[in-house]
Amino acid sequence: MGEINVAEFLEEKLGKNPGNVITPNGKLLVVTKACGFILLANVVGLSLDVKAVKHYTDWVGDGGNVPPLFVTNKKGESNELVIGPELAAYTSQFTVNKIHWINADSDWTDLPLLIRIRHTGELVPCKLVQLASDKLRVTPKKPIRGVAAGQFAVWYVDTNQILTTLKNRLVTNGRYVCLGGGVIE
């Protein structure tokens, strides 16, 4: 495909998508032309008015500098980006629906599960709690950065931790086995 300017490509294919960049409490910081092109947990590369940031938040440090700010939420219905410091881009609990288990007949409730968000994301130990027949609450052992609605969460098991328990139920050609996944709400 060759090198392309992604921003130009998206603008050409999707059109301009103006929107507001706001604080978590809804205060307007700036209007952007490319609201739809900015992803969750990405550094906000916008020129922000330091006076507005200082007025509406406590993010400005002693030297008067605004720290790197990240997209912490996207409000599609109002086309707004919520921004905040890096810590606000982390999630310690979320729900998943449209659950698919590779082997729906197996009981994985007592296994030490791992979760991965995005195809190159870190495998993080987690707990799953059934909320409804097709809905789970996921609590990772440590917060995960950039969890967004519509992404997939995928569960794995580390075969090194469970081989003695499942030696007759599990076939693997690697250390981690994918058990299933779902869509983040």
Characteristic terms for this protein:
single chain; 185 residues; mainly beta; SH3 type barrels; Elongation Factor Tu (Ef-tu), domain 3; 2 domains; six-stranded antiparallel beta barrel
CATH class of the largest domain: Mainly Beta
Give the helix proportion (percent range).
Answer: 10-25%
User: What would CATH call the homologous superfamily of the largest domain?
Assistant: Translation factors
Characterize the biggest β-sheet: 6 strands, antiparallel, barrel
Runs in which pLDDT lies below 50 for 5 or more consecutive residues are none
Number of domain units: 2
Strand fraction: 35-45%
Which second-level CATH architecture of the largest domain applies?
Answer: Beta Barrel
Strand order of the largest sheet: 6-9-8-7-11-12
Q: Give the beta-strand count.
A: 12
For this structure, the quaternary state is single chain
- The number of distinct helices, counting runs of at least 4 residues, comes to 3
Shape: elongated
Average pLDDT level: 80
- CATH T-level topology of the largest domain: Elongation Factor Tu (Ef-tu), domain 3
Helices and strands, in order, run as HEEHEEEEEEEEEHE
Structural class, by secondary structure, is mainly beta
Task: Tell me what the structure shows.
This protein is mainly beta and 185 residues long. It folds into two domains: 6-88, Roll (SH3 type barrels); 92-184, Elongation Factor Tu (Ef-tu), domain 3 (Beta Barrel). 13% of the residues lie in helices and 38% in strands. The chain is built from three helices and twelve strands. It has helices at 6-14, 50-56, 159-166, and strands at 19-22, 28-32, 69-75, 80-85, 90-91, 94-101, 113-117, 124-132, 135-140, 144-145, 152-158, 176-184. The strands form three sheets. A six-stranded antiparallel β-barrel has the order 6-9-8-7-11-12. The chain has a four-stranded mixed sheet with strand order 2-1-4-3, with no helix packed on it. It has a two-stranded antiparallel sheet with strand order 5-10. β8 and β9 (135-140) form a beta hairpin. The longest helix is centred in the first third of the chain and has 9 residues, at 6-14. It is elongated, with a radius of gyration of 20 Å. The model has no long low-confidence stretch (mean pLDDT 80).
